[in-house]
Every structure is written in C-alpha cells, then in structure tokens.
C-alpha cells in the first residue's frame, strides 16, 4: 500500500498556498502549491487548512440524554479532530467514555465531573454525597491520560440547595489532583459575583457569553469587575455555546469592550446539533465571523489557543514530523441567517464550512449542514 499522499493546493489562514505530503500518518513535507510529488489523494481546491479543530466543550457520552451524542458525529464529521468532553461523566462512567473513545476516530479528552453520577441527572450537584473524593482520585489515577481537568456546573438548576458549596469542594479537589477546573456558569443562585472570585489561573469559565440574568456583563454592556479581575488572574474564557448560553448582544458587548477570545466551543449534543441553535462547529464559527472577528483569530480559538491550554502545542500547528492532524474548510460567500440561544438573528454574507479532516493517516469527509 502506498502510504505517501499529497494534500494538494490548500491554503493557510494567511493565504499562503501549499501542498502537504503525508507519509505513514505524519506530515513529511510542506511545499509551495503544485510542487509536491506523490500520489494525489485529495485535491484541496483552494480550501483552507488549519491544524485539526479542537472543541473544548462537548457532550460525547452517547448513553446520556439529553446531554449526549456520538463521538465521531460531533468530532471528525464536524471538522473537529480533538474534542474535550465537558463533564458528561463522573467517576462512575468515565471508564465507559474511555472505552467508547478508544473505538472512535476523533481524539477524546475529558473533564471529569466532580459528581460521580455526571450527567445521568441534570441536578448532579444537588446532593453533596455524589461528590466522592476517593472515587475521583481513583478515576484520575486510572484515566489520567484522558482527563484534563475537573468540571463543576455551578448554576441554580444543577446545585439546588447546595449553593456555592460544590465550588469550594471543587477548588480543594483541584488542589489535591493538580487539575484545573472548568466551571459552567448560568442562572443564580449562586450569584456570579460569588462564583468568579473562586476561579484561579488556568481554570476555565465556560458559557462566558451567556445572556441570562446572572451573566458577566452589566446592562450597559460593560464587563463586571469580577470578569476583568478573573482575566487578570489568568482565568481562561470558553464560549460553550449550547442550547442556552450564547447571546449575540453579550458577544457584541464583549468585543466592543475588548474582552479577548480564548476558545470557541460548541457545547454540542444531539438535540442542539439536530434542531439548533448549535448545529455544528462551522455554524458557531460563522457567528464569530459575523461579529467581526478576523479568520485567523477565529481559527486560533479552535486550534492554537486550545492546544496551548491543553499543554499540547503539536495539536495547534502544522509542522513536518508531527502526526497529520488537519481540518480543511472553506469560506463561502453566501447569505445566511444565524440564530443565538436567545432566538436573536443576525444576517451574514459569509459562512465557514468544514470540508474534511486528516487524522490517523486517513482523509475523512465532513457530513454536516452548513
Ligand atoms: Zn455542557
């Protein structure tokens, strides 16, 4: 079998046109377009190429409902080569997620839910007995390769009468395991001004552009002091669009006030993939294009920024010698209506569309609606 093939005539985000030679699953050569020799496997036709997209917040455990989906359905078929499950599983089921991940084409990493039951129920922190420290330490020891942090969902419907207490416990578990936290924010209580000061450098706040009452921006669009202070401490901002957590108005206020873009993630699962407002990573990225972000900033938010947080720089670059981990996508000039989680619409004249990925030495076409 010929293991050397050429991805011909693809374009970096900078506009530079290149050929990429892939040999035994690795990038063997990068040449100016048209110059690489080898069996032509796929004609890039001028599509953009980036390192494989990373989605920092998804729900990839198929057995759970509503917050679950098939790994490759929300991974490689969306242009996403690495996905990070955002606490679908706690210690009880993380082994089953690892088993599913070993059968998938998409790379899978995970935040371990501090509640042992994970998203078996959607009020997983309403009973503090579900936070089992010994089980967490055991899971981290066993699945340390896959686990990149701990997840705590800190909003009213999740914590119930537990209030802010689960976040204090999460903080001490973070110290004990050395793992950062991903904290989901949403409706109060707890008040966002009580939540944010507990986040430290490297922790992630997901859903930071949500449009709920208890969000991170004042009515006039100014960022709350707890947000600007968290950014100064090195807290990482993650979009986590989801069914209910992305507001165009808030995103516009964030941009207007110079709040930087760290990672763009979907918080995708079956229902918001099929019925919206998420649909796909491409669709979420198109929303940031419509907000006026440059293509290179948007691509960095699903490649190098995420790879840097993960401490895996090779996932966020295209370099000879690395495993071939690539996403091909186009920028289509066409009119489209984009909808946020509040039902607000924006009309755009250009959309991002994932075309395919190269991973595991294989080219896989994307099968999604734009
Ligand atoms: Zn989520």
Automatic annotation (TrEMBL):
EC code(s) of this entry: 3.1.1.-
MF terms in GO: hydrolase activity
Domain of life: Bacteria
Family matches, as InterPro entries: Deacetylase_Atu3266-like, EF_0837-like, Metal-dep_hydrolase_composite, Metal_Hydrolase
Keyword Oxidoreductase: no
Keywords: Hydrolase
PANTHER family named among the record's database cross-references: DIHYDROOROTASE-RELATED, IMIDAZOLONEPROPIONASE AND RELATED AMIDOHYDROLASES
Protein name: Deacetylase
Native source species: Paenibacillus pseudetheri
């Amino acid at each position: 079998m010929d293991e050397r093939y050429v991805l011909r005539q693809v374009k970096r985000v900078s506009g530079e046109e290149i050929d990429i030679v892939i040999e035994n699953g690795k990038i063997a050569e990068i040449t100016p377009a048209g110059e690489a020799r080898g069996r032509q496997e796929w004609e890039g036709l001028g599509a953009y190429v980036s390192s494989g997209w990373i989605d920092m917040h998804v729900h990839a455990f198929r057995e759970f409902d509503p917050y679950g989906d098939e790994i490759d359905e929300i991974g490689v078929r969306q242009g996403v080569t690495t996905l990070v499950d955002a606490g679908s599983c706690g210690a009880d089921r993380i082994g089953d997620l690892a088993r599913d991940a070993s059968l998938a084409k998409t790379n899978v990493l995970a935040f371990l839910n501090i509640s042992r039951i994970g998203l078996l129920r959607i009020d997983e922190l309403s009973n503090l007995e579900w936070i089992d420290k010994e089980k967490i330490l055991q899971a981290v020891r066993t699945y340390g390769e896959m686990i990149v942090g701990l997840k705590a969902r800190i909003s009213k419907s999740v914590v119930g009468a537990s209030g802010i207490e689960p976040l204090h416990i999460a903080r001490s578990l973070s110290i004990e395991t050395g793992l950062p936290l991903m904290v989901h924010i949403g409706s109060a209580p707890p008040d966002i001004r009580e939540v944010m000061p507990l986040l430290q450098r490297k922790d992630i706040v997901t859903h930071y552009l949500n449009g709920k009452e208890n969000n991170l921006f004042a009515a006039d669009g100014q960022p709350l002091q707890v947000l600007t202070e968290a950014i100064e401490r090195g807290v990482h901002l993650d979009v986590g669009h989801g069914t209910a957590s992305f507001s165009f108005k808030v995103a516009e206020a964030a941009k207007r006030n110079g709040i930087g873009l760290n990672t763009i993630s979907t918080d995708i699962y079956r229902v918001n993939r099929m019925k919206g407002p998420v649909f796909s990573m491409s669709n979420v990225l198109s929303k940031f294009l419509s907000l006026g972000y440059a293509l290179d900033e948007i691509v960095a938010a699903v490649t190098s920024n995420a790879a840097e947080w993960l401490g895996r720089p090779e996932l966020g670059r295209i370099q000879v010698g690395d495993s071939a981990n690539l996403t091909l996508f186009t920028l289509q000039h066409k009119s489209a209506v984009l909808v946020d989680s509040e039902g607000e619409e924006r009309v755009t004249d250009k959309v991002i569309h994932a075309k395919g990925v190269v991973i595991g030495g294989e080219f896989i076409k994307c099968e999604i609606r734009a």
